């Protein structure tokens, strides 16, 4: 196996120059850089970051774990985290928790996940994932979009968000309020945010607006556009009055509204609906909703983790951000 | 820094048992497993996979690079790749190419990206990314969703897909055909799939259906639901006839259709529209479209990479999959 010395010799430069090229040092002359890279290819030289990491034990990499990256919320959250890390000289690696098989591998403390300088775990409830309710590592980590008593975490206050919807939703006499969503196919990968929104919402309606708990109906609806559309298409509220709907995510609201349109039933004429998230498309369809400060959450989480890595924290981190109600045209 | 011997001593087990626990060996007694994990926590022991990798040079990990994971196409593609890798004992790590800053880091051959056993690069045109048009590594890799003459690749035939739309789209006398999409904010992160769809479509219309090239109008529309909705809301075809639209992705079709609805203009009564992708929601809104075999593409790519890793290939890989036209109600 060729060594860094072989590369230096063949490229006719010093070992220090090869090292500089490998570390992206901008002081290397372009001509030397090209020579070194060409020689590396020629010799099939594999630079040994393992050995390097072994000595310094700093990888300058952060692991980001998320149940999914395939939606706007997580894409924006991760982009925002990534930007702060990048500005501070850190690279990020994503681990998606797609299956219980992988969850099992993540319980192994020698998994690569735990070999970076720290971890950010998004939208997953660790208390459900691991037996001892913490990650099997001594590396610093922070949970994002999850409220957790035992672990450092940053989140948007979902109980308060639910209360905001409860304060603002239009109510109709002798009529029902429907809560849509909350169905999670596998509890291990849920974060509890939906339950908190539901509790805040019901607390507000029942305790502060005197609404009868019996007229609040929680309906399980899948989180995809497809499922909420199918649900809306078949939804028949058992009454002729206007009714009220709290969709636990904007995606559920989009699908439900489109599905009900096929029955000729539309907000705000036939019913009131409020979503949750304020995705980029929500403004276009004038959806009343709760805006989550997603970018701020990402920024705060990344900054807190970097402080932990630099040993600037002793106390428990339990950072809560506040969402905002956005009134538009569907309520 | 504590060693594996310290862990074994304190846990009162052999070094071999500690090693088995670290490698998730199922033959270890549950009681011993718990003792070892507890001791690891207690000593803050960091298992050294670097040293392990150094000797075997096999990480059993694959790097997956994608410009984005935040849409259904890429989420399904990556899930499918991940499943095959997992079935074969490989774990995958995602690298998202969000910025030119990161692209620069990826040109460094010592980046962690190249320290896994192989790479799958999705929807990125390497010819635009790196000067010498290949990745700076001797590790096996395969490009997915990209047609590339110089590198091993697997893709769905976008030229043929464009021809399928050209064969099936309804045309109206003295009327125009609009192609929507194709705008990519940064060329470095595009894969050329849109251009291929456009060329196949125009070839079919002009050469086989005798349609006048002058009546085909290509309009740049952003790829998000928000942008295509805004575009549809302001779109005024310069005629009273029915017209035809080829939306280069289903997302563009969704937004455009909703935007035009605000003007009271709907398919198939006022115009014909065909999308591209066949996302899960497309069936609900009865969108005519081209179905991409996304799961098959992921499966084939992962299998080809594993064969390359096991040295079972000498020849260039250039695997092409065929899309399928799905007629529904908007054409």
From TrEMBL, chains A, B:
GO terms for molecular function: DNA-binding transcription factor activity; transcription cis-regulatory region binding. It comes from the Bacteria. Keywords: DNA-binding, Repressor, Transcription, Transcription regulation. SMART domains: HTH_LACI. Residues 2-56 form the HTH lacI-type domain. InterPro entries: HTH_LacI, LacI/GalR-like_sensor, Lambda_DNA-bd_dom_sf, Peripla_BP_I. Pfam families: LacI, Peripla_BP_3. PANTHER family: HTH-TYPE TRANSCRIPTIONAL REPRESSOR PURR-RELATED, LACI-RELATED TRANSCRIPTIONAL REPRESSOR. This is Transcriptional regulator, LacI family. It comes from Petrotoga mobilis (strain DSM 10674 / SJ95).
